[in-house]
Structures are given as C-alpha cells and as structure tokens.
Amino acid sequence: MNTITTTNFNFPNQKSVYRGKVREVYNINDNLLVMVATDRLSAFDVVLPKGIPYKGQILNQIATKFMELTQDIVPNWLIATPDPSVAVGHLCTPFKVEMVIRGYLSGHAAREYALGKREICGVAMPEGLKENDKFPTPIITPTTKADNGEHDADISREDILAKGIVTEEDYLVLEKYTRALFQRGTEIAASRGLILVDTKYEFGKTKEGVIVLIDEIHTPDSSRYFYSEGYQDRQDNGEEQKQLSKEFVRRWLIENGFQGLEGQQIPNMTDEYIETVSERYIELYEKILGEKFVKADITNINERIEKNVLAYLESIKK
Fold it and tell me: Would the pTM of this model clear 0.85, i.e. be above it?
C-alpha cells in the first residue's frame, strides 16, 4: 500500500526542514511551521524500515482533536490542519525535555522496578507494586530530548534545573501544564472506556515568550491506554492488561530479538504484519476518539499534501 515515509517539499518562503523520527517540519519564513506526520514507525528510538498505511493521518488527527479539547486549559501551537496528515502552527523554540507522566507502573517504569529500582528520575516509587498497578498519584519522569539516532535518557527535575536546561520558573509551568493535560486526558479516556496509563508532552515558547504545547498529544505513539473493563480482574489474576498503544509493536520486536541495542537486527516486517499494524492503529483511532476513521486518498500522498499546503499558504497571504 502507498505510504509516506519521506518528503522533499519546497514551499514558498521555506527556510529549513527538520526531520524527526516520524515528523518532518518545514519552517516557513521563521514564522510558521508546517508539520507533516509521515507513516514512519519508531520504536526503541529506531525508525523501522517500512511505513504503516494511514499512520500519519491517524496521529495527526488524534493530536489535532486533543489540542482542541485541551486549549481551554493549556495554550498550544496549532493554527490549522490543511491536510489530513499536516498541522500548521506557530514557530516555537522547543524545550529540550519531554515531560513524561505516569499514572501506573507500566512500560519503562515497570522494567526499572523489576530490576529492583525504587526511584525513577529522582521520584520515589512505592514498595509492593505489581506491573500495571496504579500509583497513589501520577508521577512526572522527564527525559532528555535526544537527536535522531540517539536514545532519550531519564533525567530528574533537580538535574534539569542544575544544568540550566529549563529555568525553575518555566519548569513549574511545564509541571503544572503536564498535570492539567493528564487529568483532562484521563477524564476523556474514561468516557471512552479507557484508562490513560502514561503519556508524554512536549512544550515550546512562542516568539512572544508564551509557553505552549507542541507536537502531539494523547496519540497511541506518545501514550499508553488500557481498557477499563476488566482492568481490576486482570490485575487480581496476574494477567496482562488489554491495551491500546504501540506497545504491541514493541512486544513483537522484543519477541523477535530486537530492543534497539547495538548489534541487533530489525526483524523483517512482512506486508501481512504491516497490514495488521495499520488495522490496529485504525482501531486505536476509533476507540480513543469515539468516531469512525475516514481514510484519506492515498493514491499519491505527497502530491495531495503539497497541493493542500500550497493552497493554505496562498490563502493566508490574502
């Protein structure tokens, strides 16, 4: 199936292009950013070799919807979505940390806990927890924001401040916004029969010095969801939780001998497997947003995106 794994656009007044793990960001006149959500799939900080049909559209539309649903509590960078896979927003200077917040002992935190660690990013974790148990209160466990090919690393609030990565004044705002967004996301998830387990947020500063939410929010790439129904029974019986996130891809990679470590080979992803991943992402979309996913025309995605973005840029000149 046709996917978008790389772009090479040249928009009017384009200054530069930044290529992230799954997004490509075009700087227009040092004023706007055109963010293209590609169909690339990243796991263990490695971009996998094949694209996933509709993944970019899914991530872009979920993030857009949640920006709308949270703009009353936290300002964000978004201005428009001229294409199903594209968001346009204010140019911001990103903070060099990702704000990870965890409501449950899952994923990376659970792996650390299993090694006997009772502290993550300088935050204590209670004794006596099982994997996927709920924390008494959500914990914030930031990571550094790594360049492509590098691994994000855990970092404590104290180290962030001591190294001058973020000022204390700004960091207090990031923490406040992170908790407010997680609370709203938890409420929305509950209304869909889901539990928002953990997630990450990225923030930046506008030219005017306003701290805003950037990038994505509450997508299956940045968040982990459990199904509410049967959660407690599964915990009591020591069973795995039924979840909605890209954790299913990570599990498949681990089972096939890959965790992003040096010397490991990415396993072959057959067309059939790619198709199942695409179907899972569509399921995630429909469950998280509570609405039917409408597939965009993917006959020629690059051509479609270019046409829609050019039309938008032309419209705002008038």
Answer: yes
